[in-house]
Amino acid sequence: MCGIIGAALRRGNAAAEVYEGLERLEYRGYDSAGLSVRTDGGTVTVKRGGRVANLKESAAELCGGVAIGHTRWATHGEPSDRNAHPHVAGKFSIVHNGIIENYRELKDELLQSGAEFASDTDSEVIVRLLDKYYSGDLLAAVAKTVGRLKGSYALGILCEDFDGIVAVKYKSPVVAGFGEKGVTLCSDIPALPEWVTSVSVPEDGDIVLISAQSASFYDGGLQSVNRVRLPVFAGQFNGGTGDYPHYMLKEIHETAATVRDTCDAFFRNVDVKRLTEYVRNADRIIMTGCGTAYNAGLAARRFFSDKCRVFCQVEIASELRYSPVHITGSTLVLAISQSGETADTVEAVSALKEAGARVVAVTNCGYSAITRVAHMVVPVCAGAEVCVAATKSYIGQLAALYLISRLTADVFTARSELLSAGEKIAELLKDNGGADKIAEICAESSAVFFLGRGIDYAVAVEASLKLKEISYIFSDGYPAGELKHGTLALIDDNTLSVIIICDESLSEKCENAACQVTSRKGKVAVITCLDGAADKLQDVAAVWKIPECEANLSPFVSAVALQLVAYKTAVSLGRDPDKPRNLAKSVTVE
Ligand code: AGP
Predict the structure, then answer these.
(1) Whole-model pTM?
(2) Which terminal residue of the chain has fewer beta carbons within 10 Å of its beta carbon, N or C?
(3) pLDDT score of 238
(4) Cβ of residue 345 lying under 6 Å from some atom of ligand 1
Protein backbone atom coordinates (compact mmCIF):
# COMPACT_ATOMS: atom_id res chain seq x y z
CA MET A 1 0.00 0.00 0.00
CA CYS A 2 1.07 3.66 -0.10
CA GLY A 3 3.61 5.27 2.18
CA ILE A 4 3.10 8.62 3.88
CA ILE A 5 5.68 10.70 5.72
CA GLY A 6 5.87 14.17 7.28
CA ALA A 7 8.33 16.23 9.29
CA ALA A 8 8.00 19.33 11.49
CA LEU A 9 11.56 20.29 12.38
CA ARG A 10 13.23 22.48 14.97
CA ARG A 11 16.26 22.51 12.74
CA GLY A 12 17.14 21.28 9.26
CA ASN A 13 15.23 21.16 6.00
CA ALA A 14 11.95 19.24 6.15
CA ALA A 15 11.92 18.89 2.34
CA ALA A 16 15.17 16.92 2.41
CA GLU A 17 13.99 14.91 5.45
CA VAL A 18 10.77 13.96 3.69
CA TYR A 19 12.51 13.13 0.41
CA GLU A 20 14.88 10.75 2.22
CA GLY A 21 11.87 9.26 4.02
CA LEU A 22 10.18 8.60 0.69
CA GLU A 23 13.26 6.70 -0.48
CA ARG A 24 12.97 4.46 2.61
CA LEU A 25 9.18 4.09 2.20
CA GLU A 26 9.25 3.27 -1.50
CA TYR A 27 8.79 -0.45 -0.79
CA ARG A 28 5.22 0.40 0.17
CA GLY A 29 4.42 1.49 -3.37
CA TYR A 30 6.26 3.00 -6.29
CA ASP A 31 3.74 4.12 -8.91
CA SER A 32 4.25 7.84 -8.20
CA ALA A 33 5.57 10.17 -5.49
CA GLY A 34 5.29 13.73 -4.33
CA LEU A 35 5.82 16.17 -1.49
CA SER A 36 4.50 19.52 -0.20
CA VAL A 37 6.74 21.94 1.72
CA ARG A 38 5.83 25.03 3.76
CA THR A 39 8.38 27.49 2.33
CA ASP A 40 8.78 31.23 3.12
CA GLY A 41 6.80 31.90 -0.04
CA GLY A 42 3.92 29.55 0.85
CA THR A 43 3.28 25.83 0.32
CA VAL A 44 5.02 24.34 -2.72
CA THR A 45 3.97 20.91 -4.07
CA VAL A 46 5.96 18.75 -6.49
CA LYS A 47 4.81 15.32 -7.69
CA ARG A 48 5.73 12.88 -10.44
CA GLY A 49 4.62 9.54 -11.86
CA GLY A 50 7.13 6.74 -11.41
CA ARG A 51 9.83 6.24 -8.82
CA VAL A 52 10.79 8.59 -5.98
CA ALA A 53 14.06 9.37 -7.78
CA ASN A 54 12.03 11.34 -10.36
CA LEU A 55 11.42 13.91 -7.58
CA LYS A 56 15.02 14.29 -6.55
CA GLU A 57 15.93 17.34 -8.57
CA SER A 58 12.80 19.39 -7.84
CA ALA A 59 12.80 18.40 -4.16
CA ALA A 60 16.40 19.57 -3.80
CA GLU A 61 15.32 23.11 -4.68
CA LEU A 62 12.82 23.30 -1.80
CA CYS A 63 13.47 24.38 1.75
CA GLY A 64 11.17 24.69 4.75
CA GLY A 65 10.53 23.56 8.31
CA VAL A 66 7.39 21.52 7.64
CA ALA A 67 6.70 19.05 4.84
CA ILE A 68 4.65 15.95 3.93
CA GLY A 69 5.34 13.30 1.31
CA HIS A 70 3.72 10.28 -0.35
CA THR A 71 4.80 7.29 -2.42
CA ARG A 72 1.86 5.62 -4.13
CA TRP A 73 0.54 2.12 -4.85
CA ALA A 74 -2.32 2.98 -7.21
CA THR A 75 -5.80 1.71 -6.35
CA HIS A 76 -8.11 4.37 -7.84
CA GLY A 77 -6.69 6.24 -10.85
CA GLU A 78 -3.76 5.04 -12.94
CA PRO A 79 -0.15 5.80 -11.97
CA SER A 80 0.53 9.32 -13.33
CA ASP A 81 1.64 12.84 -12.40
CA ARG A 82 -1.97 14.00 -12.02
CA ASN A 83 -2.95 11.15 -9.74
CA ALA A 84 0.17 11.46 -7.61
CA HIS A 85 -0.20 12.78 -4.05
CA PRO A 86 -0.16 15.32 -2.41
CA HIS A 87 -3.54 16.61 -3.49
CA VAL A 88 -4.09 20.36 -3.09
CA ALA A 89 -7.17 22.56 -2.61
CA GLY A 90 -7.36 26.07 -1.17
CA LYS A 91 -5.10 26.28 1.88
CA PHE A 92 -4.68 22.51 2.14
CA SER A 93 -2.34 19.85 0.87
CA ILE A 94 -2.88 16.19 1.84
CA VAL A 95 -1.33 12.75 1.50
CA HIS A 96 -3.47 9.62 2.04
CA ASN A 97 -2.88 5.92 2.52
CA GLY A 98 -6.05 3.80 2.35
CA ILE A 99 -9.26 3.65 0.35
CA ILE A 100 -12.27 5.99 0.61
CA GLU A 101 -15.08 3.56 -0.15
CA ASN A 102 -17.75 6.28 -0.55
CA TYR A 103 -15.65 8.60 -2.68
CA ARG A 104 -17.96 8.43 -5.70
CA GLU A 105 -20.92 9.78 -3.72
CA LEU A 106 -18.74 12.49 -2.10
CA LYS A 107 -17.20 13.43 -5.45
CA ASP A 108 -20.64 13.79 -7.06
CA GLU A 109 -21.78 16.00 -4.15
CA LEU A 110 -18.67 18.18 -4.45
CA LEU A 111 -18.95 18.44 -8.23
CA GLN A 112 -22.56 19.54 -7.86
CA SER A 113 -21.42 22.30 -5.50
CA GLY A 114 -18.93 23.51 -8.09
CA ALA A 115 -15.70 21.83 -7.02
CA GLU A 116 -13.28 21.02 -9.82
CA PHE A 117 -11.20 17.85 -9.57
CA ALA A 118 -7.65 17.58 -10.83
CA SER A 119 -7.27 13.79 -10.49
CA ASP A 120 -9.11 10.47 -10.82
CA THR A 121 -8.26 9.40 -7.28
CA ASP A 122 -10.53 8.67 -4.33
CA SER A 123 -8.15 10.65 -2.08
CA GLU A 124 -8.83 14.02 -3.67
CA VAL A 125 -12.31 14.16 -2.13
CA ILE A 126 -10.61 14.57 1.25
CA VAL A 127 -8.81 17.80 0.39
CA ARG A 128 -11.90 19.13 -1.41
CA LEU A 129 -13.99 18.53 1.71
CA LEU A 130 -11.37 20.20 3.91
CA ASP A 131 -11.42 23.22 1.64
CA LYS A 132 -15.22 23.26 1.76
CA TYR A 133 -15.51 22.94 5.56
CA TYR A 134 -12.62 25.14 6.68
CA SER A 135 -13.49 28.56 8.03
CA GLY A 136 -10.65 29.08 10.47
CA ASP A 137 -11.12 26.21 12.96
CA LEU A 138 -8.72 23.56 11.67
CA LEU A 139 -9.59 20.76 14.11
CA ALA A 140 -13.32 21.23 13.46
CA ALA A 141 -12.82 21.15 9.67
CA VAL A 142 -10.73 17.98 9.91
CA ALA A 143 -13.25 16.30 12.22
CA LYS A 144 -16.13 17.23 9.93
CA THR A 145 -14.26 15.97 6.88
CA VAL A 146 -13.29 12.59 8.32
CA GLY A 147 -16.81 12.24 9.68
CA ARG A 148 -17.96 12.00 6.05
CA LEU A 149 -15.46 9.33 5.04
CA LYS A 150 -16.08 5.58 4.87
CA GLY A 151 -13.16 3.21 4.36
CA SER A 152 -9.59 3.48 5.62
CA TYR A 153 -7.26 6.42 5.84
CA ALA A 154 -3.95 7.54 7.28
CA LEU A 155 -3.64 11.24 6.46
CA GLY A 156 -0.92 13.88 6.56
CA ILE A 157 -2.40 17.38 6.13
CA LEU A 158 -0.75 20.77 5.65
CA CYS A 159 -2.75 23.98 6.14
CA GLU A 160 -1.41 27.45 5.35
CA ASP A 161 -2.70 28.68 8.72
CA PHE A 162 -0.95 26.04 10.85
CA ASP A 163 2.81 25.76 11.24
CA GLY A 164 2.76 22.02 11.59
CA ILE A 165 1.07 18.88 10.31
CA VAL A 166 -2.31 17.35 11.06
CA ALA A 167 -2.31 13.56 11.06
CA VAL A 168 -5.43 11.37 11.10
CA LYS A 169 -5.60 7.60 11.53
CA TYR A 170 -8.36 5.15 10.74
CA LYS A 171 -7.61 1.51 9.78
CA SER A 172 -4.41 2.51 8.02
CA PRO A 173 -1.08 2.67 9.85
CA VAL A 174 0.71 5.84 10.88
CA VAL A 175 2.98 6.65 13.83
CA ALA A 176 4.35 9.91 15.27
CA GLY A 177 8.11 9.86 15.83
CA PHE A 178 10.03 12.11 18.21
CA GLY A 179 13.70 13.04 18.31
CA GLU A 180 16.23 15.83 18.64
CA LYS A 181 15.44 17.32 15.22
CA GLY A 182 11.68 17.59 15.77
CA VAL A 183 8.58 15.47 15.16
CA THR A 184 7.84 13.21 12.20
CA LEU A 185 4.97 11.02 11.06
CA CYS A 186 5.40 7.85 9.06
CA SER A 187 3.46 4.87 7.77
CA ASP A 188 5.69 2.42 9.58
CA ILE A 189 8.43 2.30 12.14
CA PRO A 190 11.28 0.74 10.11
CA ALA A 191 11.17 3.73 7.71
CA LEU A 192 11.49 6.38 10.45
CA PRO A 193 14.62 8.59 10.28
CA GLU A 194 17.45 7.42 12.48
CA TRP A 195 17.25 10.52 14.77
CA VAL A 196 13.85 9.33 16.04
CA THR A 197 14.14 7.75 19.48
CA SER A 198 10.51 7.28 20.49
CA VAL A 199 7.07 6.91 18.91
CA SER A 200 3.42 7.31 19.80
CA VAL A 201 0.87 5.20 17.94
CA PRO A 202 -2.49 6.91 17.32
CA GLU A 203 -5.67 4.88 17.81
CA ASP A 204 -8.31 4.62 15.06
CA GLY A 205 -10.18 7.93 14.92
CA ASP A 206 -7.39 10.02 16.42
CA ILE A 207 -6.56 13.47 15.05
CA VAL A 208 -3.01 14.59 15.85
CA LEU A 209 -1.67 18.15 15.76
CA ILE A 210 2.06 17.88 15.15
CA SER A 211 4.48 20.78 15.63
CA ALA A 212 8.26 20.81 15.71
CA GLN A 213 8.07 20.66 19.54
CA SER A 214 5.32 18.13 20.24
CA ALA A 215 2.22 16.21 19.19
CA SER A 216 -1.27 16.67 20.65
CA PHE A 217 -3.74 13.79 20.29
CA TYR A 218 -7.52 14.16 20.06
CA ASP A 219 -10.17 11.49 19.74
CA GLY A 220 -13.01 11.64 17.21
CA GLY A 221 -14.99 13.84 19.61
CA LEU A 222 -12.05 16.28 19.74
CA GLN A 223 -11.36 15.37 23.37
CA SER A 224 -7.67 15.51 24.21
CA VAL A 225 -6.28 11.99 24.75
CA ASN A 226 -2.93 10.63 25.83
CA ARG A 227 -1.00 8.14 23.66
CA VAL A 228 1.96 6.48 25.33
CA ARG A 229 5.47 7.28 24.18
CA LEU A 230 7.41 4.11 23.28
CA PRO A 231 11.17 3.79 22.81
CA VAL A 232 12.15 2.76 19.30
CA PHE A 233 15.26 1.78 17.37
CA ALA A 234 14.81 3.70 14.12
CA GLY A 235 17.07 3.92 11.11
CA GLN A 236 16.82 0.22 10.35
CA PHE A 237 17.09 0.96 6.64
CA ASN A 238 20.25 2.92 6.79
CA GLY A 239 22.49 0.04 5.88
CA GLY A 240 21.18 -0.01 2.29
CA THR A 241 21.93 -3.21 0.38
CA GLY A 242 25.53 -3.29 1.62
CA ASP A 243 27.68 -5.57 -0.55
CA TYR A 244 24.62 -7.08 -2.22
CA PRO A 245 23.07 -5.92 -5.51
CA HIS A 246 19.53 -6.14 -4.11
CA TYR A 247 17.79 -6.15 -0.75
CA MET A 248 16.34 -9.55 -1.62
CA LEU A 249 19.75 -11.24 -1.77
CA LYS A 250 20.90 -9.41 1.36
CA GLU A 251 17.79 -10.52 3.22
CA ILE A 252 18.12 -14.13 2.04
CA HIS A 253 21.59 -14.07 3.54
CA GLU A 254 20.07 -12.87 6.82
CA THR A 255 17.79 -15.91 7.16
CA ALA A 256 20.13 -17.91 9.39
CA ALA A 257 20.56 -14.94 11.75
CA THR A 258 16.79 -14.51 11.77
CA VAL A 259 16.32 -18.04 13.08
CA ARG A 260 18.79 -17.42 15.87
CA ASP A 261 17.40 -13.99 16.80
CA THR A 262 13.80 -15.23 16.76
CA CYS A 263 14.74 -18.10 19.08
CA ASP A 264 16.52 -15.72 21.44
CA ALA A 265 13.59 -13.30 21.54
CA PHE A 266 11.13 -16.14 22.10
CA PHE A 267 12.76 -17.14 25.38
CA ARG A 268 13.57 -13.55 26.36
CA ASN A 269 10.39 -11.64 25.55
CA VAL A 270 7.52 -14.14 25.38
CA ASP A 271 5.47 -15.18 28.43
CA VAL A 272 6.22 -18.83 27.67
CA LYS A 273 4.19 -20.09 30.63
CA ARG A 274 1.03 -18.25 29.56
CA LEU A 275 1.49 -19.17 25.90
CA THR A 276 1.95 -22.81 26.84
CA GLU A 277 -1.37 -22.66 28.70
CA TYR A 278 -3.02 -21.14 25.61
CA VAL A 279 -1.76 -24.06 23.51
CA ARG A 280 -2.44 -26.79 26.09
CA ASN A 281 -6.03 -25.62 26.69
CA ALA A 282 -6.83 -24.94 23.04
CA ASP A 283 -9.76 -26.91 21.60
CA ARG A 284 -8.22 -26.10 18.24
CA ILE A 285 -5.61 -23.83 16.68
CA ILE A 286 -6.40 -21.63 13.69
CA MET A 287 -3.41 -20.19 11.87
CA THR A 288 -4.18 -17.38 9.45
CA GLY A 289 -2.41 -14.89 7.21
CA CYS A 290 -2.05 -13.82 3.59
CA GLY A 291 0.46 -14.71 0.90
CA THR A 292 3.73 -15.88 2.36
CA ALA A 293 2.42 -15.53 5.90
CA TYR A 294 -0.35 -17.99 5.05
CA ASN A 295 2.23 -20.26 3.46
CA ALA A 296 4.22 -20.25 6.69
CA GLY A 297 1.11 -21.51 8.43
CA LEU A 298 0.73 -24.21 5.80
CA ALA A 299 4.19 -25.53 6.63
CA ALA A 300 3.69 -25.07 10.38
CA ARG A 301 0.58 -27.25 10.33
CA ARG A 302 2.98 -30.17 10.01
CA PHE A 303 4.87 -28.93 13.08
CA PHE A 304 1.70 -29.01 15.15
CA SER A 305 0.42 -32.34 13.81
CA ASP A 306 3.81 -33.86 14.57
CA LYS A 307 4.17 -32.87 18.23
CA CYS A 308 1.13 -31.04 19.45
CA ARG A 309 -2.06 -32.89 20.40
CA VAL A 310 -4.33 -30.09 19.18
CA PHE A 311 -6.33 -30.00 15.97
CA CYS A 312 -4.80 -27.31 13.77
CA GLN A 313 -6.21 -25.63 10.68
CA VAL A 314 -4.76 -22.99 8.35
CA GLU A 315 -6.97 -20.40 6.71
CA ILE A 316 -6.35 -17.62 4.19
CA ALA A 317 -7.29 -14.50 6.12
CA SER A 318 -9.37 -12.89 3.36
CA GLU A 319 -11.47 -16.07 3.23
CA LEU A 320 -11.56 -16.65 6.97
CA ARG A 321 -13.08 -13.23 7.57
CA TYR A 322 -16.18 -14.15 5.63
CA SER A 323 -16.47 -17.85 6.38
CA PRO A 324 -18.27 -19.08 9.48
CA VAL A 325 -15.97 -20.84 11.91
CA HIS A 326 -17.02 -22.21 15.29
CA ILE A 327 -15.11 -20.22 17.91
CA THR A 328 -14.97 -20.90 21.65
CA GLY A 329 -13.05 -19.20 24.45
CA SER A 330 -10.47 -21.97 24.06
CA THR A 331 -9.85 -21.47 20.36
CA LEU A 332 -6.31 -20.23 19.77
CA VAL A 333 -5.72 -18.01 16.73
CA LEU A 334 -2.16 -17.55 15.49
CA ALA A 335 -2.18 -14.39 13.36
CA ILE A 336 0.83 -14.43 11.06
CA SER A 337 1.93 -11.18 9.44
CA GLN A 338 5.35 -9.73 8.62
CA SER A 339 4.09 -6.14 8.61
CA GLY A 340 1.32 -6.62 11.15
CA GLU A 341 -0.70 -4.19 9.03
CA THR A 342 -2.29 -6.45 6.39
CA ALA A 343 -5.93 -5.40 6.43
CA ASP A 344 -7.26 -8.86 5.50
CA THR A 345 -5.42 -10.41 8.42
CA VAL A 346 -6.11 -7.66 10.97
CA GLU A 347 -9.82 -7.60 10.16
CA ALA A 348 -10.20 -11.40 10.15
CA VAL A 349 -8.43 -11.78 13.46
CA SER A 350 -10.33 -8.89 15.03
CA ALA A 351 -13.58 -10.68 14.19
CA LEU A 352 -12.33 -13.94 15.77
CA LYS A 353 -11.25 -12.05 18.88
CA GLU A 354 -14.69 -10.48 19.02
CA ALA A 355 -16.14 -14.00 18.88
CA GLY A 356 -14.10 -14.95 21.94
CA ALA A 357 -10.93 -16.52 20.54
CA ARG A 358 -7.50 -16.04 22.08
CA VAL A 359 -5.23 -14.27 19.61
CA VAL A 360 -1.46 -14.52 19.38
CA ALA A 361 0.29 -12.35 16.79
CA VAL A 362 3.39 -13.73 15.07
CA THR A 363 4.89 -10.63 13.50
CA ASN A 364 8.09 -8.89 12.47
CA CYS A 365 6.80 -5.43 13.33
CA GLY A 366 6.28 -4.43 16.93
CA TYR A 367 3.63 -1.74 17.65
CA SER A 368 1.83 -2.76 14.42
CA ALA A 369 -1.96 -3.01 14.19
CA ILE A 370 -1.99 -6.79 14.73
CA THR A 371 -0.12 -6.37 18.01
CA ARG A 372 -2.93 -4.12 19.27
CA VAL A 373 -5.54 -6.75 18.43
CA ALA A 374 -3.62 -9.69 19.93
CA HIS A 375 -3.65 -10.88 23.53
CA MET A 376 0.02 -11.78 23.10
CA VAL A 377 2.83 -11.15 20.59
CA VAL A 378 5.47 -13.67 19.51
CA PRO A 379 8.14 -11.58 17.77
CA VAL A 380 9.78 -12.57 14.50
CA CYS A 381 13.19 -10.95 14.65
CA ALA A 382 14.07 -10.57 10.99
CA GLY A 383 14.82 -6.86 11.18
CA ALA A 384 13.61 -4.50 8.46
CA GLU A 385 12.56 -6.48 5.39
CA VAL A 386 12.68 -4.05 2.46
CA CYS A 387 12.26 -6.43 -0.47
CA VAL A 388 8.57 -6.72 -1.34
CA ALA A 389 9.03 -10.50 -1.62
CA ALA A 390 9.13 -11.99 1.86
CA THR A 391 12.22 -14.12 2.49
CA LYS A 392 13.80 -13.90 5.96
CA SER A 393 10.46 -13.04 7.55
CA TYR A 394 9.02 -16.34 6.23
CA ILE A 395 11.91 -18.25 7.80
CA GLY A 396 11.46 -16.30 11.05
CA GLN A 397 7.74 -17.10 11.05
CA LEU A 398 8.56 -20.81 10.63
CA ALA A 399 10.96 -20.61 13.58
CA ALA A 400 8.42 -18.91 15.84
CA LEU A 401 5.67 -21.37 14.88
CA TYR A 402 8.02 -24.32 15.37
CA LEU A 403 8.68 -23.19 18.93
CA ILE A 404 4.99 -22.63 19.66
CA SER A 405 4.21 -26.13 18.33
CA ARG A 406 6.68 -27.64 20.78
CA LEU A 407 5.67 -25.74 23.92
CA THR A 408 3.71 -28.69 25.30
CA ALA A 409 6.48 -31.13 24.43
CA ASP A 410 10.16 -30.25 24.41
CA VAL A 411 10.58 -26.59 23.50
CA PHE A 412 14.24 -26.45 24.49
CA THR A 413 15.05 -29.37 22.21
CA ALA A 414 13.13 -27.50 19.52
CA ARG A 415 15.37 -24.49 20.06
CA SER A 416 18.52 -26.50 19.49
CA GLU A 417 16.96 -28.15 16.42
CA LEU A 418 16.23 -24.70 15.02
CA LEU A 419 19.75 -23.51 15.64
CA SER A 420 21.07 -26.54 13.75
CA ALA A 421 18.65 -25.72 10.92
CA GLY A 422 20.20 -22.25 10.90
CA GLU A 423 23.58 -23.86 10.42
CA LYS A 424 22.21 -25.84 7.46
CA ILE A 425 20.96 -22.58 5.93
CA ALA A 426 24.42 -21.08 6.32
CA GLU A 427 25.89 -24.20 4.67
CA LEU A 428 23.46 -23.84 1.75
CA LEU A 429 24.27 -20.16 1.31
CA LYS A 430 27.96 -20.96 1.12
CA ASP A 431 27.41 -23.34 -1.78
CA ASN A 432 24.30 -22.48 -3.78
CA GLY A 433 25.51 -23.05 -7.32
CA GLY A 434 22.67 -25.52 -7.78
CA ALA A 435 20.29 -22.57 -8.00
CA ASP A 436 21.87 -21.25 -11.19
CA LYS A 437 20.97 -24.22 -13.38
CA ILE A 438 17.38 -24.40 -12.15
CA ALA A 439 16.99 -20.63 -12.49
CA GLU A 440 18.25 -20.84 -16.07
CA ILE A 441 15.57 -23.45 -16.92
CA CYS A 442 12.89 -21.42 -15.11
CA ALA A 443 13.74 -18.34 -17.13
CA GLU A 444 13.25 -20.15 -20.45
CA SER A 445 10.00 -21.91 -19.41
CA SER A 446 6.45 -20.84 -20.22
CA ALA A 447 5.23 -22.06 -16.83
CA VAL A 448 6.93 -23.41 -13.72
CA PHE A 449 5.17 -25.86 -11.42
CA PHE A 450 6.38 -26.63 -7.92
CA LEU A 451 5.25 -29.87 -6.36
CA GLY A 452 5.91 -31.93 -3.28
CA ARG A 453 4.25 -34.15 -0.73
CA GLY A 454 3.66 -33.50 2.96
CA ILE A 455 5.68 -30.54 4.22
CA ASP A 456 7.33 -30.25 0.79
CA TYR A 457 3.90 -29.36 -0.63
CA ALA A 458 3.73 -26.38 1.71
CA VAL A 459 7.17 -25.25 0.53
CA ALA A 460 6.09 -25.75 -3.09
CA VAL A 461 3.24 -23.28 -2.61
CA GLU A 462 5.61 -20.67 -1.17
CA ALA A 463 8.21 -21.30 -3.89
CA SER A 464 5.56 -20.68 -6.53
CA LEU A 465 4.53 -17.37 -4.99
CA LYS A 466 8.15 -16.26 -4.74
CA LEU A 467 8.88 -17.04 -8.39
CA LYS A 468 5.75 -15.52 -9.90
CA GLU A 469 5.79 -12.30 -7.88
CA ILE A 470 9.31 -11.29 -8.92
CA SER A 471 9.85 -13.00 -12.31
CA TYR A 472 6.26 -12.66 -13.67
CA ILE A 473 6.44 -16.28 -14.98
CA PHE A 474 3.20 -18.21 -14.54
CA SER A 475 3.64 -20.63 -11.66
CA ASP A 476 1.61 -22.92 -9.44
CA GLY A 477 2.46 -24.92 -6.35
CA TYR A 478 0.46 -28.07 -5.65
CA PRO A 479 0.56 -31.51 -3.99
CA ALA A 480 2.60 -33.95 -6.10
CA GLY A 481 -0.21 -36.49 -5.75
CA GLU A 482 -2.48 -34.15 -7.69
CA LEU A 483 -0.30 -34.17 -10.81
CA LYS A 484 -2.26 -37.03 -12.37
CA HIS A 485 -5.59 -35.45 -11.43
CA GLY A 486 -5.29 -32.57 -13.87
CA THR A 487 -2.08 -30.60 -14.00
CA LEU A 488 -0.47 -33.31 -16.16
CA ALA A 489 -2.58 -31.92 -19.01
CA LEU A 490 -0.50 -28.74 -18.90
CA ILE A 491 2.85 -30.49 -19.12
CA ASP A 492 4.77 -30.03 -22.35
CA ASP A 493 8.37 -29.36 -23.37
CA ASN A 494 8.02 -25.66 -22.48
CA THR A 495 7.04 -26.26 -18.87
CA LEU A 496 9.27 -26.96 -15.90
CA SER A 497 8.21 -29.04 -12.90
CA VAL A 498 10.32 -28.46 -9.79
CA ILE A 499 9.88 -31.39 -7.43
CA ILE A 500 10.85 -30.91 -3.79
CA ILE A 501 11.86 -34.14 -2.05
CA CYS A 502 12.96 -33.80 1.56
CA ASP A 503 10.78 -36.38 3.26
CA GLU A 504 12.37 -39.84 2.97
CA SER A 505 9.04 -41.56 3.64
CA LEU A 506 7.48 -39.92 0.59
CA SER A 507 10.50 -39.92 -1.69
CA GLU A 508 9.54 -42.81 -3.93
CA LYS A 509 6.14 -41.32 -4.74
CA CYS A 510 7.79 -38.07 -5.75
CA GLU A 511 10.29 -39.88 -7.88
CA ASN A 512 7.30 -41.38 -9.72
CA ALA A 513 6.00 -37.87 -10.35
CA ALA A 514 9.27 -37.03 -12.05
CA CYS A 515 8.78 -39.98 -14.40
CA GLN A 516 5.18 -38.98 -15.15
CA VAL A 517 6.35 -35.50 -16.16
CA THR A 518 9.27 -36.61 -18.29
CA SER A 519 7.04 -39.16 -20.05
CA ARG A 520 5.06 -36.14 -21.30
CA LYS A 521 8.25 -34.37 -22.41
CA GLY A 522 8.07 -31.96 -19.48
CA LYS A 523 11.29 -30.56 -18.04
CA VAL A 524 12.04 -31.58 -14.45
CA ALA A 525 14.20 -30.11 -11.72
CA VAL A 526 14.60 -31.63 -8.28
CA ILE A 527 15.55 -29.99 -5.02
CA THR A 528 16.31 -32.64 -2.45
CA CYS A 529 18.26 -33.19 0.75
CA LEU A 530 18.23 -36.97 0.13
CA ASP A 531 21.23 -38.61 -1.54
CA GLY A 532 19.09 -41.49 -2.78
CA ALA A 533 16.62 -39.28 -4.62
CA ALA A 534 19.44 -37.18 -6.06
CA ASP A 535 21.21 -40.27 -7.42
CA LYS A 536 18.06 -41.83 -8.89
CA LEU A 537 16.90 -38.69 -10.70
CA GLN A 538 20.10 -37.09 -11.88
CA ASP A 539 19.71 -38.59 -15.38
CA VAL A 540 16.18 -37.22 -15.94
CA ALA A 541 16.28 -33.96 -14.01
CA ALA A 542 18.37 -30.96 -13.06
CA VAL A 543 19.09 -31.98 -9.48
CA TRP A 544 20.20 -29.68 -6.67
CA LYS A 545 21.29 -31.66 -3.63
CA ILE A 546 20.87 -29.37 -0.60
CA PRO A 547 22.20 -30.00 2.93
CA GLU A 548 20.71 -33.00 4.74
CA CYS A 549 17.88 -32.06 7.11
CA GLU A 550 15.18 -33.88 9.07
CA ALA A 551 11.87 -33.67 7.18
CA ASN A 552 10.04 -31.30 9.53
CA LEU A 553 13.01 -28.92 9.56
CA SER A 554 13.64 -29.19 5.83
CA PRO A 555 11.56 -26.10 4.92
CA PHE A 556 14.20 -23.94 6.57
CA VAL A 557 16.67 -25.12 3.93
CA SER A 558 14.51 -25.96 0.90
CA ALA A 559 12.60 -22.67 1.12
CA VAL A 560 15.81 -20.64 1.18
CA ALA A 561 17.10 -22.64 -1.80
CA LEU A 562 13.91 -21.82 -3.68
CA GLN A 563 14.12 -18.15 -2.70
CA LEU A 564 17.53 -18.13 -4.38
CA VAL A 565 16.10 -19.83 -7.48
CA ALA A 566 13.38 -17.18 -7.70
CA TYR A 567 15.88 -14.36 -7.16
CA LYS A 568 18.34 -15.63 -9.81
CA THR A 569 15.51 -16.21 -12.29
CA ALA A 570 14.15 -12.68 -11.81
CA VAL A 571 17.56 -11.06 -12.14
CA SER A 572 18.35 -13.11 -15.27
CA LEU A 573 15.14 -11.76 -16.80
CA GLY A 574 16.05 -8.18 -15.92
CA ARG A 575 13.32 -7.80 -13.30
CA ASP A 576 13.70 -5.70 -10.15
CA PRO A 577 13.41 -8.35 -7.41
CA ASP A 578 13.00 -5.72 -4.68
CA LYS A 579 10.14 -3.76 -6.28
CA PRO A 580 8.13 -6.10 -8.53
CA ARG A 581 5.50 -4.48 -10.73
CA ASN A 582 1.99 -3.87 -9.33
CA LEU A 583 2.88 -5.04 -5.82
CA ALA A 584 3.63 -3.38 -2.49
CA LYS A 585 5.17 -4.63 0.73
CA SER A 586 2.21 -4.16 2.99
CA VAL A 587 -1.39 -4.37 1.75
CA THR A 588 -3.30 -2.23 4.22
CA VAL A 589 -6.53 -2.29 2.21
CA GLU A 590 -8.90 -5.18 1.64
C1 AGP B 1 5.06 -12.33 -0.17
O2 AGP B 1 6.33 -12.37 -0.75
C3 AGP B 1 4.31 -11.07 -0.51
N4 AGP B 1 5.04 -9.90 -0.16
C5 AGP B 1 2.91 -11.08 0.09
O6 AGP B 1 2.26 -12.26 -0.29
C7 AGP B 1 2.87 -10.97 1.63
O8 AGP B 1 3.36 -12.16 2.20
C9 AGP B 1 1.43 -10.76 2.08
O10 AGP B 1 0.96 -9.55 1.53
C11 AGP B 1 1.26 -10.74 3.60
O12 AGP B 1 1.99 -9.67 4.14
P13 AGP B 1 2.21 -9.63 5.74
O14 AGP B 1 3.04 -10.82 6.10
O15 AGP B 1 2.89 -8.32 5.99
O16 AGP B 1 0.85 -9.72 6.39
Answers:
(1) 0.87
(2) C
(3) 60
(4) yes
